[in-house]
Amino acid sequence: MIELVELRKSFGSVEVLQGITAHIGRGEVVCIIGPSGSGKSTILRCINGLEDYDGGSVTIDGTRVDRSSPAIKSIRTQIAMVFQRFNLFPHRTALENVIEGPIYVKGTKREEAVPRAIELLSRVGLSGKANAYPAELSGGQMQRVAIARALAMQPKAILFDEPTSSLDPELVGEVLSVMRALAEDGMTMVVVTHEIRFAREVADRVLFLDHGRILEEGPARQVLTTPQHVRTQEFLRRVLSPI
Amino acid sequence: MKFLADAREFLPILLHGLWLTIVITFGSLALSTLLGLVWALMRVSRLRALQRLAKVIVNTIRGIPIIVQLFYIYFVMPELGLTLTALQAAIIGLGIAYSAYQAENFRAGIEAIDKGQIEASESLGMSWSLMMRRVVMPQAIKIILPPYGNTMIMMLKDSSQASTITVAELTLQGQLIASSTFKYTSVLTMVAVLYLVMSIPLILFVGWLERRMQQARR
After folding, report:
1. Mean pLDDT taken over chain B
2. B24 phi-psi bin (left φ>0, alpha ψ -120 to 50, beta other)
3. Which of these, A105, A97, A100, A104, lies nearest to A75 by C-alpha position?
4. Which residues of B touch A104 (CB under 8 A)?
């Protein structure tokens, strides 16, 4: 469904993506791991056109992702994104955050959008927080609202950009378990993460990225338990036992 | 006692001037807000040409003294075929002159919004105008409001510049009475007090806005 071919992207003189080719199929859960600065987030941002790219192509079901074309808006309604820093709208309640896209972008009637949003909030375990403002929520709760907001668009796929990296350790679990449930429901997910255990248990495939290239890829268990490349081995050792 | 007698005599005339001061202030406030918003939105738009045009307009307006702009509109425009009453010229002149400051304030407020908000809006498929209306402006307004209140106070006082193009607002009215009666002390005291009576509530209002803004930040 998501097709990357020889994707290239530079920031100034630094080439952060040096020819990424990958295919993400419907219902697949793919985790992208790798050292910081390896270009993981940039891949996600190129998939939904938050970032331009310099070479190669990104297509969603055959439609080319082009930040400057009018079609980008419709692509973005199909590919939702969950951010590291949540990026909830602080001036709107949890419920209003969730119905914002359906009502104002997709033109869904409020009478339909609200019950659906309430259902989504309860699916992420926040039925009691519909009228809370983001400032009144914990990080884990905010991220779960952000996931509900993404789901409300009824997307074909959801991109997660380090969804647990800015959470206190004790709040990581509640977000990961919501994501695990989504994966079990068959949602197509591309997840940039440092949560190796989550990747091993939930992902179908893992891509290991280093300096803008995919150094290693394959079934999650294989890449994470018997990595072939020395850089992957080093990275996993550092992440799994940091001291 | 003499002051009270003078007040009784001149206050009705001064109040007529005060009324014009209020008309000029609110008229030019409305115009400067509207124009300032247009310049600011051009500045933050995604079209290079619009950005540049807005920059040129704002810098041109900022670089010319208000009084010269007033003269220009009142005395030069008629030669170009546009004749305005003094009051109209004052409102338009001050409105344009202040639109530059309004634009800079609005732009600062808009640019203070976290980039994550823009990315979240984009990732939902929002258009630029929808994002401005639903996400950016509702948040920016809290940042914009305190300096906006300050601009209001400055405009109230700068409305006195309309006197230079013959609008008999509070300052000119006072000047006329004072110079014809030689009662400078009592008349100009009244003028000053009337300005204070109008600006102090505004000053307190701005202070309240700023405190509320501080609390919201926490």
Report:
1. 93
2. alpha
3. A105
4. 126, 130, 134
Which residue, A20, A5, A72, is CA-closest to A211? A20
Angle at A7 (CA atoms; ends A210, A32), nearest 5 degrees:
40
- In whole angstroms, give the CA distance from residue B127 to residue B149: 31
Average pLDDT over residues B195-215: 88
The partner residues of A20 in beta bridges, in order of sequence, read A7
- pLDDT tier at B213, thresholds 50, 70, 90: confident
What is the DSSP secondary-structure string of B73-108?
Answer: IIIIGGGGT----HHHHHHHHHHHHHHHHHHHHHHH
Decide if A76 and B124 are in contact by the 8 Å CB cutoff. Answer: yes
pLDDT in tens, A175-198: 999 999 999 999 999 999 999 999
Report residue A224 CA to chain centroid gap.
Answer: 20
With residue A232 as reference, give the H or E element that holds it: helix A230-240
The C-alpha atoms of residue B2 and residue B200 are separated, in whole angstroms, by 26
Please give the Cα distance from A6 to A199 (Å, whole number): 25
- Look up residue B135 and give its two tokens: 């996400």
> Cα separation of B200 and B218, whole Å?
28
Which chain A residues are within 8 Å of B114, Cβ to Cβ?
Answer: 87
Give the three-class secondary structure for A208.
Answer: strand
Selecting from A85, A90, A105 the residue whose C-beta is nearest the C-beta of B124 gives: A105
* pLDDT tens per residue across span A200-238: 999 999 999 999 999 999 999 999 999 999 999 999 998
SS3 category, A199: helix
Residue A129: which of A170, A101, A78, A93 has the closest Cα?
A93
Cβ contacts of B136 on chain A, cutoff 8 Å? none
Average pLDDT over chain A, rounded to an integer: 94
Assigned token pair, B186: 């009592």
Chain A hits for B122, Cβ within 8 Å: 49-50, 76
Q: Are A166 and A87 in contact (CB under 8 A)?
A: no
pLDDT per position as a tens digit, B69-91: 999 999 999 999 888 999 999 99
B40-43 long-range contacts (CB < 8 A, ≥24 apart) are B40/B102, B40/B103, B40/B104, B40/B106, B40/B107, B40/B110, B41/B132, B43/B103, B43/B107
Q: If you measure CA to CA, which chain A residue comes closest to B126?
A: A105
Nearest to B123 among A76, A88, A91 (CB): A76
